[in-house]
Specification:
heterodimer, A: about 550 residues, alpha/beta, TIM Barrel, Immunoglobulin-like, eight-stranded parallel β-barrel, five-stranded antiparallel beta sheet, disordered N terminus, B: about 450 residues, alpha+beta, Phosphorylase Kinase, domain 1, Aminoglycoside 3'-phosphotransferase, Chain: A, domain 2, 2 domains, six-stranded antiparallel beta sheet, 13 helices, globular
């Protein structure tokens, strides 16, 4: 445990687990600081607001909060355009609020990681302001400058809607600067050792504050090399290894979670030999989970899991259903491009949802059975699940807010004014809360669902509790149990004597399945939510019937 | 135990009559022509039933301790033989494991289970890893399935389960084969029905809007089918197709129909039009019994199964080279069958409203399959001229539909209206431009 600014009392009140591999079994919860809870009634959520809602998150049963960027920023890219790595955005609070939040979270056994953008800064960042002055200032070489805009033309343009080139002209310096994302986000020059060190200092600063790690945004693009597309270069991996080494040398139990929106077989490179990132997001699984339910068959899921390589010991996938971004079809292999074209782009309903932010509930036509099925699958498949704030109560979205704001509306705490999110005047809110009759805060809110034991929120809490009792969900082996019924997905998670069998009906009709479980001959499946024992497994295929969108989680016990 | 062979011979006719893999009712004359005790309580035999050869495997257990695996499988019991219960040995896990070791020496498995019911063979799965296929009806010479899958795999066609080991008689007829088991696969037929059940219950008029849309799978299936034909052509060679042979085939098939099945005048017109075809494309070795039940969707794409040809056709005919359109036609027919069977499942209540949906589903998946097929590079060269493709495809669909009428009339009379309606529709003189769209691609 690092000593955090002399807060020695924290050691005794820190209830986070001592296991340095906690993240392999954790459930993450993604929070938009702006949208979670407004403690000072200025219309914008803040860090103190999150602190005040920690009891709720503890009650829900999550293990780690992931904060979207909270740094000083002109907010032209949702805070991913950082103007000062060491300062909190004033609307969100100050450093003391961050320290307080971390302490209070740790006191409840909850960890906190935060977004960190390594690749670039805002053009408002003092580093860039200095660098653009002339070609000789002390930070002249902290960004990537060039006399023409022709170099590295192999690198694709990521935001093709807004950017026409990866180079932008800076009149002040009289040169072009390199940016893989927006023109207002110049790329840092990682070939400069000072930049490398400066970013390590940023990381160490926040770990000293007490953060438990980072979600590293846009990691594949740190370096540029002639004749390459500038992605996943060996130099980038070298730097991540260095970062990991320095973190491990000083701290314990910290986690680095990479955002590399690439194919799993390429993403695994970011685990290194267990010496780069602890976690990477598994991107293709999410659209395929939605497709599997739409097609009422398991193939889209089992196909992608079969293509997912093993990861080094001590690593973990991060999996999710929804997050703060739109449903993208990042197309990285020809086969997947064909698949996505055939299955997504030609499907009028799925096509309508591409490229706009949607929350889970509207994506599944507000069908709670489907939302629960998706979550149950997410909680039981390999990887640590990442929930998006509000999805636990089935919040909706407002697509008319445009861009990605549609899924960033205030958390719906109660049926009170402003959804209980803020006591500010309605007009002052950063975004209006949802008020439609189906998803609006009158109908969907935490308070009402906490009173109703059959609510989605209670269901979620029960599932998380069961998951926590069975570490096998986090670290067990994974094996699909074949069934001739394509609508049934069954698999076994196993770690030593702990064996869990999960069976899902992806169809809206009741389905039968005969599962070849002979190797568990003699064991008794016990349903995990109600502890109901099922008939003993015998020499014959095990027969189960499932209602529409049903979920079964069984523990396979020795007969008593 | 005394020699049980005599008793078994007496029990066989009735037993055979109960087996799905036995063609027809209980035979009149059954003779055991060869037999061997593989081990204590496990006997292998070849029997002659009314002139056809079958492979029979018999296990024995004490009659007072009937094993669990026979419950619900009473059809697999031959009867009592000298104080023991005689039954189909494939159901006995111990004997099935012993059989695996015999067919594929060196292979071992902990768990075994039988799957499905097939017309010509019995399949066992070992540890979800290996599949042992026991051929029931035996023919002279090598089994086409083994020969073809072996060669296709060697030619780089990755969508078959190539043989790992085989078991043969002295005259080189195959008795059994061990293949990799395509774990987690689902039959195309099951997927198609899943799609259709969804469609029939949805409030959409267009299958494209419906969640269970099958068109993406149909497209990929078309691609795999084309790749299979290209590999077949490479391995077994290419001959020039013969339009006259098609016309004779169609004529002969049409003659087998009963008066009420088809309009004779239209049938004659159709044969005449077929005779006028100038270029028939290539004739290659084909699958021969291609339908949704013969393709398996796995996590690594579609796999093609069962290259034995139509069980009801004599083996000589199954080896004949033909146009690849014959397989394509088989799949087209299968789309119609799936749509019709899923419709029949639902009974009469909303039948009339759903008929257009069935047609829409069939049409959409036909087009998607054909596009996937025809867009595959190289397949164009195997096919007739673009102008002649629609009638050629129709001829093969008709051939298949007539085969189905005759089959259903014998085995499943309730279903005979499905292919009968197809025969009538196929004979209908029509503007073939609707099919020409996808058929002219490539």
């Amino acid at each position: 445990m690092s000593t955090d600014h002399g807060n020695n009392h924290q050691v005794s009140t820190d209830k986070t687990s001592a296991d340095p591999r906690w993240f392999q079994r954790a459930v993450f919860y993604e929070v938009l600081t702006r949208g979670f809870y407004d403690s000072n009634h200025d219309g914008t959520g803040d860090l103190q607001g999150i602190t005040e809602k920690l009891d709720y998150l503890e009650w829900l049963g999550i293990d780690c909060i992931w904060l979207l960027p909270f740094y000083q920023s002109p907010l032209r890219d949702g805070g991913y355009d950082i103007a000062d790595f060491f300062t909190i955005l004033p609307e969100y609070g100050d450093l003391a609020d961050a320290v307080h939040l971390v302490e209070e979270a740790h006191r409840r056994g909850i960890r906190i990681i935060a977004d960190l953008v390594m690749n670039h800064t805002s053009d408002q960042h003092p580093w860039f302001q200095e660098s653009r002055q002339d070609r000789t200032n002390p930070r002249a070489d902290w960004y990537v400058w060039n006399d023409d805009d022709l170099r590295w033309s192999e690198a694709r343009i990521i935001f093709t809607d807004t950017e026409r080139s990866n180079w932008s002209w800076d009149a002040q310096r009289g040169q072009y600067y390199w940016h893989r994302f927006f023109g207002h986000q110049p790329d840092l020059n990682f070939d400069n050792p000072e930049v490398q060190t400066a970013m390590l200092d940023v990381v160490k600063f926040w770990l000293d504050v007490g953060l438990d790690g980072f979600r590293l945004d846009a990691v594949p693009y740190l370096f540029e090399r002639d004749g390459t597309n500038g992605e996943n270069l060996p130099e980038t991996h070298e730097y991540i290894k260095r970062l990991r080494k320095e973190v491990d040398a000083t701290f314990r139990g910290k986690v680095l979670l990479a955002e590399a929106n690439q194919w799993p077989s390429d993403v695994v490179d970011y685990f290194g030999d267990g010496d780069e990132c602890h976690m990477c997001f598994h991107f293709p699984l999410m659209p395929r989970m939605f497709m599997a339910i739409r097609r009422e068959q398991r193939m889209p899921i089992t196909e992608i899991l079969a293509q997912t390589p093993d990861i080094p010991d001590g690593c973990q996938w991060g999996t999710f259903l929804r997050n703060h971004d739109e449903l993208t079809l990042e197309m990285v292999t020809d086969e997947e491009r064909d698949y996505m074209y055939n299955e997504y782009a030609t499907d009028p309903r799925m096509r309508r949802n591409i490229g706009i932010g949607r929350r889970l509930a509207p994506l599944v036509d507000n069908d709670r059975r489907v939302a629960e099925l998706l979550h149950a699958m997410l909680f039981s498949m390999p990887g640590s699940p990442v929930l998006y704030y509000g999805d636990e109560i089935g919040m909706g979205d407002n697509i008319y807010l445009g861009d990605r704001d549609g899924v960033r509306t205030p958390m719906q705490w109660s049926p009170d004014r402003n959804a209980g999110f803020s006591r500010a005047d309605f007009a002052r809110l950063y975004l209006p809360p949802l008020m439609d009759p189906v998803h609006g805060f009158q109908a969907v809110n935490v308070e009402a669902q906490q009173r109703d034991r059959s609510s989605m929120l209670y269901w979620m809490r029960r599932m998380l509790a069961v998951r926590k009792q069975h570490p096998v969900f986090g670290t067990g082996s994974f094996e699909v149990i074949p069934s001739e019924n394509p609508s049934v997905l069954a698999f076994v998670r196993q770690e030593g004597p702990d064996i869990v069998l999960c069976v899902y009906n992806l169809s809206r009709f009741a389905q039968p399945a005969e599962l070849p479980l002979q190797r568990f001959d003699g064991k008794v499946p016990v349903e995990l939510l109600g502890r109901v024992p099922f008939p003993r497994i015998g020499e014959l295929p095990y027969f189960v019937t499932l209602g529409p969108y049903d979920t079964y989680w069984f523990e396979l016990d020795e007969p008593s | 135990m005394n020699d049980p062979v005599g008793t078994i011979e007496e029990l066989l006719p009735e037993y055979l009559g109960r087996q799905r893999w036995f063609a027809g009712d209980a035979p009149d004359a059954v003779r055991i022509v060869e037999h061997k005790e593989l081990e204590e309580g496990f006997r292998w035999m070849i029997v002659d039933a009314d002139g056809a050869r079958y492979q029979v495997l018999v296990g024995f257990r004490p009659v007072n301790q009937p094993p669990e695996f026979l419950y619900g499988n009473e059809n697999a019991v031959l009867g009592t033989v000298d104080g023991t219960l005689a039954f189909d040995a494939v159901l006995d896990a111990d004997l099935a494991r012993s059989l695996l070791a015999r067919v594929a020496p060196g292979e071992k498995a902990d768990h075994v289970r039988p799957i499905g019911v097939e017309q010509s063979h019995t399949s066992l799965i070992y540890d979800d890893r290996l599949l042992l296929k026991i051929f029931r009806r035996l023919h002279e010479g090598p089994n086409p399935e083994i020969e073809i899958t072996d060669k296709l795999a060697a030619a780089g066609f990755a969508h078959v389960a190539a043989p790992l080991a085989t078991w043969t008689l002295d005259d080189s007829s195959h008795l059994a084969v061990v293949q990799p088991y395509l774990v987690g696969g689902a039959e195309g037929w099951a997927l198609a029905l899943t799609s259709l059940r969804d469609l029939y219950s949805a409030d959409y008029d267009d299958p494209a809007e419906c969640g269970g849309d099958f068109a993406g799978e149909a497209w990929r299936l078309g691609e795999v089918t084309a790749a299979m034909h290209l590999a077949m052509a490479e391995v077994f060679g290419i001959k020039e197709g013969d339009p006259e042979a098609w016309a004779s085939m169609a004529e002969a098939q049409l003659a087998r129909l009963e008066e009420e099945d088809a309009d004779r005048e239209r049938a004659k017109e159709f044969v005449d039009r077929l005779r006028a075809v100038e270029n028939a494309g290539s004739a290659i070795r084909i699958h021969g019994d291609y339908h949704l039940g013969q393709v398996l969707r796995t996590d690594t794409g579609w796999f093609v199964l069962d290259f034995e040809g139509e069980p009801a056709r004599p083996p000589e005919e199954r080896h004949l080279l033909s146009s690849p359109l014959q397989d394509v036609a088989g799949m087209m027919r299968s789309f119609q069958y799936a749509a019709a069977v899923a419709l029949a499942e639902r009974g009469a209540a909303d039948h009339d409203e759903l008929v257009p949906l069935a047609a829409a589903w069939e049409g959409r998946n036909r087009r998607s399959f054909l596009e996937g097929y025809l867009r595959t590079e190289g397949v164009d060269a195997l096919l007739p001229n673009v102008d002649d493709r629609p009638i050629a495809l129709t001829a093969f669909e008709l051939d298949k539909a007539i085969y189905e009428v005759l089959y259903e009339r014998s085995y499943r009379p309730d279903w005979v209206d499905i292919p009968r309606a197809a025969v009538a529709a196929l004979l209908e003189p029509k503007d073939q431009s609707s099919e020409r769209g996808p058929l002219s691609l490539g």
